[in-house]
């Protein structure tokens, strides 16, 4: 049914994910993309449930999910085919890049850094939040939101790579949210990742570090309010808001969505239960990792504190004081002993009974 046209080398950021440009044999002008990925460390579904869920993906239809043409899996990897989009992803729009170029060439040295217009930020943000809410309500974990996983179709955003959480692959932003112990559910992971995506849409580049202490001037204060609720120090320390809370914020609440397509994704009850258990296992592993990072950071802080120049000086001063004190105490002890022995010799007191010397005769005076 399909033929390989050419491999698309390094168009994504994952080392172990391969892409191929395809064509349909009886429609040679139609272009498709085949993606092939191995399993990751968070794959907790049984092989049977995993294969059933992968094969369900083409049946999922939602105005803001990019349609899967074909999907299959074996015990170690999954293969999916989707239509090729000449316009590319949301990240391609922000960086003015060509979809077929390698990832590093596309995004690592942009010629011009420029965010999107306010109306685009509002519309795209609202669409992405709507699809996140849909997946959360279905009990389908996502956890892989970033600008390269959002396909642009005119003025419509469509989410890509729903299979990543089934495969157990690590998230693009894992190194960020694994630092914060309050971001410990896949729902809160999605909200935090949405904060990163909104920042990139607003300023044309990702944040230098997270949490963000102060935000550069934005097209609207409503944008900064959402960024503060997902990327600020306070938000990372206290936890993320729910998707429904973000939808009510002024930036997105007045956006009108014009779509007639009815969302549809039927997951059998048995598979829903398997997904719930897998989601709990993914979250448990994340919490364990966060605990280890937290302990390591405490240990590193303690070591750097004790190894600092100031602490070393303090310890030297304390050691000097201690040695002086012990020297004074020793000399006092020594003089006390000396005076005691002089006193006992002068008074002619008898030596103790245990002494081996002969007893002194009584004085006749």
TrEMBL record:
Protein kinase domain segment(s): 1-337
GO cellular component, one term: plasma membrane
Biased amino acid composition, Low complexity: 339-357
Any Pfam family: PK_Tyr_Ser-Thr
Gene Ontology terms for molecular function: ATP binding; phosphatidylinositol binding; protein kinase activity
GO BP annotations, alphabetical order: early endosome to late endosome transport; endosome to lysosome transport; negative regulation of monoatomic ion transport; protein targeting to lysosome
Compositionally biased intervals (Basic residues): 293-304, 313-325
Subcellular location: Cytoplasm
Superkingdom of the source species: Eukaryota
PROSITE patterns: PROTEIN_KINASE_DOM
Keywords: Cytoplasm, Kinase, Transferase
Main subcellular location of this protein, as a coarse class: cytoplasm
Keyword Nuclease attached: no
Annotated stretches, region: Disordered: 293-365
Record-given protein name: PX domain containing serine/threonine kinase
